[in-house]
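Appendix B, Record 12. Input sequence as logged:
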Amino acid sequence: MLRLKCRWATVGTAAAMASACVIGPKYVRPTAPTAPGYKEAGGSDGKGDWKSAEPRDAAVRGIWWTGFQEPRLDELETRLDGTNQNIAAAAANVQVARALVRQARAQYFPAIAVNPSLTNARLATAFGQSVGITYTAYALPVEASWEPDLWGRVRQTVTSSRTAAQVSAADLENVRLSAQAELAIEYAELRTEDALRQVLDAAVAAYQDALDVTRARYSAGLESDEAVAQAETQLTATQAQATNLGIARAEYEHAVAVLVGEPPSTFSLAPDPAGLTPPAIPVGVPSELLERRPDIAGAERAVAQANAEIGLAQSAFFPVALLSGSAGFQAVSIAEWLAWPSRVWSVGPSLAQAIFDGGLRRATVQQYRAVYDRTVATYRQTVLTAFQEVEDNLAALRILSQVIDEQSATVASAQRTLQLADVRYRSGIDPYLNVIIAQAAVLNAQQAMVGFRGQQLVATVQLIRALGGGWDASQLESFTPVSGHRVTGAIQ
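Logged structural output:
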């Protein structure tokens, strides 16, 4: 009867300990500075003239790079997710974080171990008398121990591990988005070089024709040798410029190869001067950015992790409860080893409480409170930086749109000037130097136009990246990347 009462008392103690409270501050998402709209998109002060795409978000959700209407870029972006090594490393970090979550959750359950042993020993004395007994002891104990989550220490550990895993998941998405954007930028830069090469090749062909005409006029006595030398100089200088473009193009091509996980020596992209078509980008409102950027989501989850660490540090002020027990068989004869009378067992709770630690626990709590404050500041700075990046690229696109229109007029004027100069030269009115000056003006204007269009493409990609590339913070709760270095399943 006494034994039965002891067992019920033990069960009651365990039940009381299992219904414990959680120590630590309740997490509240920190506030972040926001604005009703983007200034450069006609938001807070109405100065912008940004025209959003319709329907909203159509251009940046999911595989955003398809908006550039470039099949080769689509193919490379699809390859990127499965072959980029930075993405692979970030995906491995997520797997590590998820394993740590499972390790933390394991503390909810008892630890059970079996420790069979067979010991041969000699007992020289017993109870003060010489006995000289040699015996063999057989033991088969099963030991169990369990720490009830009395003050929420285990729960806070699991919360901290889970939010850390969510930080890793957000980091993976940020690395993936950065790699996608970098690939699109490198590809756009490479195609800009192709477009520049087309402009220079056309100029070289035009200069060659002009040189042929000048030589013919020189042979007929209508032109000086100086004009021929000027035409030759202009031709060879432009040829050198065209050849020099190969350096930058090769570097961009090599960068693309590395991004898709391929050695540069085995990768090549055929020239294509057609370029890319920048899509219209819906920007939404600033408050949406808090959910659409993985770096912001990761910074916010880091705050939640720091909050859980405070509770974990505060739980050290309370005693640690441990329920332990063992049961099994023990005998000095193998015939009696597993017999019912040879059974042994023990069970009971224990408490451990630090009485004096020289202020260690209090300092630890202060440390984690300071870490929490730091993560809050980092989160808010991340939000501000995100708003800045969006505004910067909106301004760049707005201004570049105006610049391209103005530069188009410049190209048209320069081409008209060249036509007039060529007519006056062939008529013998003006010297060939005027034609050279007009040709140089056309070439410079065309090169500037190509450069501005390249800047527009880069700014478009950077704006898409600044807006999160179609990602959403809800994916942290149901995290399933697309392909390649897969990390599947929700972080729970």
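The first helix runs from residue 2 to 18.
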